[in-house]
Amino acid sequence: MQPSVWQILIVAALVLILFGRGRISEMMGDVGKGIRSFKKGITEEEENAAKPTPKIDNKSGDLSADTSKTADKTAG
Questions:
Q1: Beta pairing partners, 20
Q2: What pTM, to 2 d.p., does this model score?
Q3: What Cα–Cα distance (Å) separates residue 74 from each residue in 5, 25, 68?
Q4: How far is CA 1 from CA 4, 50, in A?
Q5: How would you classify residue 20: left for phi > 0, otherwise alpha for psi between -120 and 50, otherwise beta?
Q6: Rounded distance, CA 28 to CA 21, Å?
Q7: Is the Cβ–Cβ distance between 65 and 54 less than 8 Å?
Q8: What's 58's DSSP letter?
Q9: pLDDT tens digits for 36-72?
Q10: What is the Cβ-side half-sphere exposure of residue 8, based on CA atoms within 13 angstroms?
Q11: Please, how many CA atoms are within 13 Å of residue 43, restricted to the half-sphere of its CB?
């Protein structure tokens, strides 16, 4: 059983009366901010995954980028 057009209009009117136009637009703004921050977090995660992870040289304690893959490519 699907709702008719009248039932949808009545529910929409009740929601508008209960929450008011300002409250609904405020909630939609919050949803938009959440989506934007989610997308930003995803892109930052992808950028961090693409960067090489620093390795600690146990002898000297220095941080160095993981270049072993590039050294293997140039040697072979």
A1: none
A2: 0.44
A3: 69, 58, 10
A4: 9, 50
A5: left
A6: 11
A7: yes
A8: T
A9: 999 999 988 888 877 776 666 666 555 555 555 555 5
A10: 4
A11: 6
